From TrEMBL:
The lineage of its organism: Bacteria, Pseudomonadati, Pseudomonadota, Alphaproteobacteria, Rhodospirillales. Keywords: Signal. GO terms for cellular component: membrane. SUPFAM superfamilies: Porins. Residues 1-21 form the signal peptide. It comes from Aerophototrophica crusticola. Pfam families: Porin_4. GO terms for molecular function: porin activity. This is Porin. Gene3D superfamilies: Porin (2.40.160.10).
Length: 350
């Protein structure tokens, strides 16, 4: 039985569950972003000015039995969230179902079935991103400014999968996910990706949280492997390490990934990178400094660094500003970005 059929069976079970439940609940949340960007030195035939928008509306329906077993259904309708951090909208589509999954939570952990991020991404997505987005921002969509790989490295994104996460015990949590194909039920993540899709995509994630006096910290590791179904294209194998250190309003994050030649001609164009980020938030104000360096050997040598600012003007409205220096040296006749990019973002959350 395919994951799609399993998901349909699970949805039917979730709909039948309320008669047996002690409690039902429904919650919803929404996010919308509009952004404008300006580049000082765009590639030939590319505009200096660009505009972006993204949105998502999520509904969570849950049924909790007398024994504490929780069965839930989550669905997000919006513009997609391909290669975005866990709670941020993208602009992959005008209207799509970017995430829909059934989850069952008990004392033994949580199982999800459907379109959801994989175990490795859920473990290492730790960077303290402000509204402008930093390496997750819309400015990376500008012509010539796109990095050679997503800053978290290659993963299964929102492919239809089964995911299991253990309870957090003594600060530690582990996750394991499997996607038969890197393909989503509705959202077209194949079209958005520059690399060929994989089959049998496994991800493993490990995450640990702890405290040391006034400091808090989080450490994570992720591993992903997918089988190439394209002759001459290498299998995907990605390793990721991440850390986050918190003190008062300060947070310091670091992430490193190595994708090898994942999804590229076998033995060529090895890809790796790292991101460093420091953020301070005080009431409605936030500021961050970040540095990203990545390379696709023989294709691109990429560096981006800059400043991000945010201001929560209302409870539901926040403005973000990024000023970013991009140096994207391509080993092809096409010219990458080499200059400054500024992005102004307005975000609404409910």
């Amino acid at each position: 039985m395919t994951l799609t059929r399993l998901l349909a069976s699970g949805l039917a079970l979730a709909c039948a569950a309320p008669a047996l439940a002690a409690e039902t609940s429904f919650e919803w949340r929404a996010v919308g972003q509009a952004a404008g960007s300006y580049a000082t030195d765009p590639p030939p035939r590319a505009d200096r000015w660009d505009a972006f928008a993204g949105y998502g509306v999520t509904g969570d329906f849950a049924v909790t039995s007398d024994s504490g077993l929780k069965v839930g259904l989550t669905a997000t309708v919006g513009s997609g969230d391909y290669e975005k951090s866990l709670d941020r909208p993208g602009n992959n589509e005008k209207l799509t179902l970017s995430e829909v999954f059934l989850d069952v939570t008990s004392a033994y952990g949580r199982v999800k079935l459907g379109d959801e991020d994989g175990a490795a991404k859920r473990a290492v997505d730790l960077l303290p991103i402000l509204v402008g987005g930093q390496m997750d921002g819309f400015w990376t969509r500008m012509p010539g400014a796109r990095p050679p790989q997503y800053h978290l490295g290659r993963d299964s994104d929102d492919a239809t999968k089964i995911l299991y996460e253990t309870p957090r015990l003594a600060g530690a949590r582990a996750g394991l996910s499997y996607a038969p194909e890197r393909d989503s039920l509705v959202e077209d993540i194949k079209k958005a990706s520059l690399l060929p899709a994989e089959e049998d995509f496994w991800e493993l994630g490990l995450n640990y949280r702890g405290d040391a006096g006034a400091w808090s910290y989080e450490l994570a590791a992720g591993y992903g492997r997918g089988q190439s179904d394209t002759p001459g294209i290498a299998d995907t194998e990605s390793v990721k390490l991440a850390g986050l250190l918190l003190y008062g309003g300060f947070s310091f994050g670091a992430l490193w990934y190595d994708d090898g030649d994942s999804g590229r001609p076998t033995g060529r164009f090895d890809t790796s990178g790292y991101t460093l980020q420091g953020t301070y938030e005080n009431g409605p104000y936030g500021a961050t400094l970040f540095w990203h360096d990545s390379e696709a050997e023989g294709l691109a040598d990429y560096r981006a660094y800059g400043l991000g600012l945010s201001w929560r003007a209302r409870e539901t409205l926040t403005f973000g500003l990024d000023l970013v220096r991009v140096d994207n040296d391509l080993a092809t006749p096409a010219r990458g970005q080499d200059g400054w990019v500024g992005t102004l973002v307005a975000e609404v959350r409910f």
